[in-house]
């Protein structure tokens, strides 16, 4: 359960990590393992921002080797090629590390990349890209790359519905992985950081940074009850993602440059025939941006969009224009679907925390660590464009950066990447008919020991019940009743929490709003 914020008042830490998405949580975990006294805070719940709204792919890095209009992008801009190779290498290494260390949180898929006569990439270019990926990454988790001939395409589920078979030259098939699911991976890191001695607190904003001779003062505010506290840190890691510039601005230091240029990504969830459940498609849409159709728990999700976002980062929602774009692109790619808005189960939207760089109109995708000392904020570091899949190497990179500035105040301890499982209770009823593995006992274990405050915390970011066909919409009261005694909810509050949860689904996921 969350301890009062007053318990932190006046404490000093080696490092305060602001932002508890997967990269901030990984940084806190690695810092605590290395012996640094660490505080991790987030203005919302753990992993409730961009980390929870991703495409959920532990991908091999192929997208980094697809520069957009054509391969001439790399010829004309060799610096972009070097960045692409670096990011692809990080992707392949992270893919292998995650599958080998925490395979329970991943799922293997058969992914297909269609090669068209009128497409931007020919077969030999795709072959070359996969040879590069194989060379860049460990051999322990192979890509299983091969090309399907026309006969195989015609009998392969999902792929057989691709558009324009007369211009389809071939289809590249490879092994891809997805996360099950990013929020839980983040929680694994948060809970391990806590085991290692870190203090962790959600719904706690870093309201103000004050520069001091020996580091930084950080004014904290509980975003639920308004209480405050003040702590000090020798080093501050600004891992706030799309809120990085807001956190930097709180220091009141003139001349700090903009770090974030976010792009909005929207996905839609639909249901396809059961034979498609192991197959996904990776391609480019008609504006030459990545486009996916990915299996998920008996469904498929399609997207994303990629539009520069300058709106309210605290209220990111799927809009009609976003949804219509995805439906149109899906019907272009797979015309046999004849997809309609009424076929959509739900949708979601997030904003990628990409780097602000004039050379990249839609944000710089390469992961960057920014040392803000030259801009008047010494011992403040920020990270931009850290994808979910490389979060462990991101945590290691931030820990190495801290170690260059500071010695740990505690002894190091072994880190654990193990998936944290709820205790098995065969007698416990299931919460949902469409996803029976989530038990009421799991909800109670989350409520008892995983820093939750509401149903969305429990159902989305602790148990994954929200990421199902029903999203737990009809089971909200049942879920609230199951944890009411632990959360201190009266019967009236149980009904209120259920209403709040359904309102959350309707506003953030357009549940029941798409017909």
Rg computed from alpha carbons, rounded to a whole number of angstroms = 23 Å
Please give the CATH architecture of one domain: 3-Layer(bba) Sandwich
Low-confidence stretches: none
Briefly, what CATH class of one domain? Answer: Alpha Beta
Secondary-structure content class: alpha+beta
Largest sheet: 9 strands, mixed
Helix content: 25-40%
Number of helices, where a helix is a run of at least 4 consecutive DSSP H or I residues: 13
Which superfamily, in CATH terms, is the homologous superfamily of one domain?
A: FAD/NAD(P)-binding domain
- Gross morphology is globular
Mean pLDDT: 95
Task: Give an overview in words.
The chain is of the alpha+beta class and 515 residues long. Among the domains are: 5-51 and 182-260 and 359-403, FAD/NAD(P)-binding domain; 263-352, D-Amino Acid Oxidase, subunit A, domain 2 (D-Amino Acid Oxidase, Chain A, domain 2, 2-Layer Sandwich); 440-508, no CATH class. The protein contains 13 helices and 19 strands. Strands 3, 4, 5, 10, 11, 12, 13, 14 and 15 form a nine-stranded mixed sheet that branches. It is globular, with a radius of gyration of 23 Å.
